[in-house]
Amino acid sequence: MPVPFDAILPAPFGKVGVRADNERIREIFYLPENVESLAPRSDVILRLAAQLDAYYADADALFDVPLAIAGTPFQQQVWQAICAVPRGGLTTYGDIARKLGGVARAVGQACGQNPLPIVIPCHRVVSASGIGGFAHHAEDGFHLEVKRWLLRHESAMLI
């Protein structure tokens, strides 16, 4: 059974579920609007909530909340490459794969395992043929709409 959320915060596209320890943010999840909110009960989540609100108001806002990032060495490389994509910019799974000496599918899987979306902006990674992504969510529509919202918010030009 999954660990319950430590907070469920409002977002322009629905809600954001957060899991954290006392000092760092461990996971962020996109949730639909109909999920009940849960107020932050720790300083680190209050800090994240303020930074998310700043980002929703201004896509140039920066995140500096402490993070607990756990992943394989390859996932860590992919997430670092994602963080290098500037706001308003896009890259493809294939571009990251070429830079890292991997394959696009593995990059897509690493994106799908990103525990900290928005902060590690995996929405800036698209397929060579369009927006793509979120295959780990079975292209359920909601997650693609979140990705579209984030890209529009950041004024990214879709390829």
From TrEMBL:
Domain Methylated-DNA-[protein]-cysteine S-methyltransferase DNA binding, residue spans: 73-155
GO biological process: methylation
Enzyme class: transferase
Taxonomy, superkingdom: Bacteria
Keyword DNA repair on entry: yes
One MF annotation (Gene Ontology) recorded for this entry: methylated-DNA-[protein]-cysteine S-methyltransferase activity
SUPFAM superfamilies for the chain: Methylated DNA-protein cysteine methyltransferase domain, Methylated DNA-protein cysteine methyltransferase, C-terminal domain
EC number(s) from the headed UniProt entry: 2.1.1.63
InterPro entries membership: MethylDNA_cys_MeTrfase_AS (IPR001497), MethylDNA_cys_MeTrfase_DNA-bd (IPR014048), MethylDNA_cys_MeTrfase_DNAb (IPR036217), MGMT_N_sf (IPR036631), WH-like_DNA-bd_sf (IPR036388)
The reaction(s) this protein catalyses: a 4-O-methyl-thymidine in DNA + L-cysteinyl-[protein] = a thymidine in DNA + S-methyl-L-cysteinyl-[protein]; a 6-O-methyl-2'-deoxyguanosine in DNA + L-cysteinyl-[protein] = S-methyl-L-cysteinyl-[protein] + a 2'-deoxyguanosine in DNA
Keywords for this protein: DNA damage, DNA repair, Methyltransferase, Transferase
UniProt xrefs under NCBIfam families: ogt
Protein name (record): Methylated-DNA--protein-cysteine methyltransferase
Organism field: Cupriavidus numazuensis
Gene name tied to this protein: ogt_2
